[in-house]
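Help needed: design a sequence for this.
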């Protein structure tokens, strides 16, 4: 009985601490565009969107054990869906963002069966090939103007503040979704599958269905995020939209911040965007510097910065643990 009371007390205290921490942070983020210049606001836009991308790659690679090198396919689909819906059909921007997520889910569903038959590095290569195939297809598809691409003119009607709130909803929504998901039965199944797929299957976890749900969720959010990214860029072109640079950024964010942690992609996104801004005038060496930093982090902390913090101090902001009541 004492253990139950103590466990519930700790759970309640953790909830109160998180509430005290998050409420002022959310309030500060809501009023931030009115107290800083536009450059800082646009940097925050990038942080929010890369944060969402990092959370979705981490959901696959860090929790489900699905290391994808083709997440850019959903970014491209999201960007092109937004362009087609707003430029050709002249429908509202929100419709374009949602269609991007839906189209991404449909495409993920189509390729899931052959891709999930692959394991390890073959799965990674399979997703990359799918993204490259889309790049070639879209560059020759006259309906989407082939390699010419689209100017997304609906972006011109948005203010910097408008773009900030769109990005904030996407970024913070991705964090909330992942945290909620990991505290559900599906989240427990994902982590069990990541640790030992054979053992997970033995205890009754449906491997294929669990992978598929995770893949579809990641595709949907990445598709919406891709649309939001191209809303801020205002121009989409096939080889850029489906380029592997997007996934390289996601992998860097997760490795630096901490794979298998909710906080990792947040820290990684901040680090990546600020470093990208600093190295903007050095395009020739920026990727080399990013690679060196990633290697150093891997050597010093294999699970990234927040992973090391979790391992050594047990500190968690977004705890995925679920308290279990025991009478003994």
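Sure. Designed sequence:
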């Amino acid at each position: 009985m004492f253990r139950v009371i103590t466990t519930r007390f700790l759970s309640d205290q953790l909830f109160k601490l998180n509430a005290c921490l998050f409420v002022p942070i959310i309030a500060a983020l809501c009023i931030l565009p009115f107290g800083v210049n536009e450059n800082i606001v646009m940097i925050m836009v990038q942080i929010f969107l890369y944060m969402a991308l990092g959370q979705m790659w981490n959901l696959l690679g860090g929790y489900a054990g699905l290391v994808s090198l083709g997440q850019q396919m959903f970014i491209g689909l999201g960007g092109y869906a937004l362009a087609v819906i707003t430029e050709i059909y002249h429908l509202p921007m929100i419709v374009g963002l949602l269609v991007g997520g839906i189209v991404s889910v449909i495409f993920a569903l189509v390729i899931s069966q052959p891709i999930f038959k692959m394991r390890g590095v073959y799965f990674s290569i399979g997703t990359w090939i799918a993204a490259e195939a889309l790049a070639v297809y879209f560059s020759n598809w006259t309906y989407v103007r082939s390699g010419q691409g689209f100017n997304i003119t609906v972006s011109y009607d948005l203010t910097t503040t408008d773009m900030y709130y769109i990005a904030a909803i996407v970024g913070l929504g991705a964090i909330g979704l992942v945290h909620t998901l990991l505290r559900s039965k599906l989240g427990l199944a994902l982590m069990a599958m990541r640790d030992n797929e054979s053992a997970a299957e033995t205890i009754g976890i449906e491997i294929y269905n669990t992978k598929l749900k995770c893949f579809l969720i990641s595709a949907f959010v990445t598709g919406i995020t891709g649309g939001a990214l191209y809303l801020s860029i205002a121009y989409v072109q096939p080889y850029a939209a489906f380029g592997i640079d997007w996934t390289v950024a996601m992998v860097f964010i997760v490795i630096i911040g901490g794979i298998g942690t909710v906080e990792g992609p947040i820290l990684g996104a901040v680090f990546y965007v600020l470093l990208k801004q600093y190295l903007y005038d050095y395009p020739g060496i920026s990727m080399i510097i990013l690679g060196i930093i990633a290697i150093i982090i891997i050597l010093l902390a294999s699970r990234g910065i927040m992973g090391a913090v979790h391992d050594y101090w047990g500190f968690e902001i977004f705890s995925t643990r679920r308290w279990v009541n025991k009478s003994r």
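The chain is about 75% helix and 0% strand.
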